[in-house]
């Protein structure tokens, strides 16, 4: 009986090790077993799937979500970290609009996801792959509070980086009247004499008080 049980375990182990098809099966939403396990926080199953040598971490569901994106969406940071250990480029993947996970998290005002991404050292100066080429700091400049901007700066964001309209984050914050972000940028030494592509210099058309 013991030999039979061992043989059955060995057969299951061999099937697990070599049958890749089960890893790539999809449900009606295009989700793989890994997507589903992550979405439901099934830690044991997640760990087993990630141990498989043929796991494909680039597969996306019908909504375009990768396993890493799914992990971020459900706040499963442990699964996200495990995925990054296996596929370091997972956090830098761009969607069809040229945005990566940091860009999307900033635009959603999702400070928790932003802090996680900064903790795993994503490129804090990565640009949106479109005609404007905004940096994460440009995107954060229109958000309603200054937490995103301050954390990006602490992580190494270049404060006076310009987009393709020659605008810095301060230009962007000024255009939308974002006083908290304007203050944060000034406190961190941004160049308020910088001119944009139209030749506008910030101190000539802003209402905030500049430092002496």
TrEMBL record:
Keyword Transferase: no
ANK repeat locations: 29-62, 97-129, 132-164, 165-197
Annotated SMART domains: ANK
InterPro entries: Ankyrin_rpt, Ankyrin_rpt-contain_sf
Keywords: ANK repeat, Repeat
Keyword DNA-binding: no
Top-level taxon in the UniProt lineage: Eukaryota
Protein name per its UniProtKB record: Rabankyrin-5-like
Organism in which the protein naturally occurs: Diaphorina citri
């Amino acid at each position: 009986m013991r030999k039979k049980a061992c043989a059955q375990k060995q057969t299951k182990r061999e099937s697990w090790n070599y049958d890749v098809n089960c890893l790539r099966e999809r449900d009606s939403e295009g989700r793989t077993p890994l997507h589903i396990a992550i979405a439901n926080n099934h830690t044991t199953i997640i760990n087993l799937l990630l141990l498989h040598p043929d796991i494909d971490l680039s597969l996306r569901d019908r909504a375009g979500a990768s396993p890493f994106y799914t992990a971020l969406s459900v706040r499963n940071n442990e699964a996200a970290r495990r995925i990054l250990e296996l596929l370091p480029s997972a956090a830098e993947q761009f969607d069809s609009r040229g945005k990566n996970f940091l860009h999307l998290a900033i635009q959603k005002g999702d400070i928790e996801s932003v802090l996680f991404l900064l903790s795993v050292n994503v490129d804090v100066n990565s640009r949106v792959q479109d005609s404007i080429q905004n940096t994460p700091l440009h995107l954060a400049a229109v958000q309603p509070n200054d937490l995103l901007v301050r954390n990006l700066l602490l992580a190494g964001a270049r404060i006076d980086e310009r987009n393709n309209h020659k605008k810095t984050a301060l230009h962007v914050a000024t255009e939308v009247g974002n006083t908290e972000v304007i203050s944060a940028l000034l406190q961190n030494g941004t160049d308020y004499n910088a001119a944009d592509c139209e030749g506008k210099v910030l101190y000539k058309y802003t209402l905030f008080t500049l430092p002496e």
